[in-house]
Amino acid sequence: MSPPGKYGTSIFLNGLEARIDSELVSRPVDILFQMEQDASALGVPVLTPASGAVLRFLVECEQPEEILELGTGYGISLFWMASGLNRASKIVSLERESDYIARVRSYLEKHPFSDLDIRLLKVHCLRYLEEASENPNAKWSAKFVFVDCDKVLYPKIFRILKRMRPDTAVFDNVLWHGRIFDPDRQAPSDKAVREFWEEVKNSNFSYTLFPVGDGLLRIRFR
């Protein structure tokens, strides 16, 4: 049990995260600034620079031969991960929205990662995983999985990854804007992220929470 008063007033100041992102986080490739500005102009939520730096650090440490990304979005997380690889590796990024795929391809034309095999696939993340996990002839080669798709899918994705056993999976938005701690929040996504957390905590896998952005959770399956 936690001591009384342990979870008192936050030490964080208003605007601190924005200062960290703008003044303390170095972008490994300049095009990330344009990508962030484009997303902000359209009101599209994306991975924060601080979260991107942590994600890049994890990729740098592990140097996986193949990365699977569930949810391409604006491509910001893809660029952070690609910049952390120092050998010929493969990144397969799944996205169901054609507009996002087209935009990310335009960014890759401006800043190609010539040493990497980057593939953008228009497909539903869960359907892709289910087909891979149910096909006895499918060869699972991704060693590192980054998950930033529909939060309602997080529990199902975690269960599939438990069977597929990549080395590492990293889930974004696991703090879910603090709604996981508010019992009055009962939207399907709120319930799903809570359910996901319970399954992770009750598993035997090693995991680490990085409280940057909206929370990154690294899970080791091996």
Automatic annotation (TrEMBL):
One Pfam entry name: Methyltransf_3
UniProt cross-references to SUPFAM superfamilies, sorted A to Z: S-adenosyl-L-methionine-dependent methyltransferases
UniProt keyword annotation of Transmembrane present: no
GO BP annotation list: methylation
Keyword entries, A-Z: Methyltransferase, S-adenosyl-L-methionine, Transferase
UniProt GO MF annotations: O-methyltransferase activity; S-adenosylmethionine-dependent methyltransferase activity
Protein name according to UniProt: O-methyltransferase
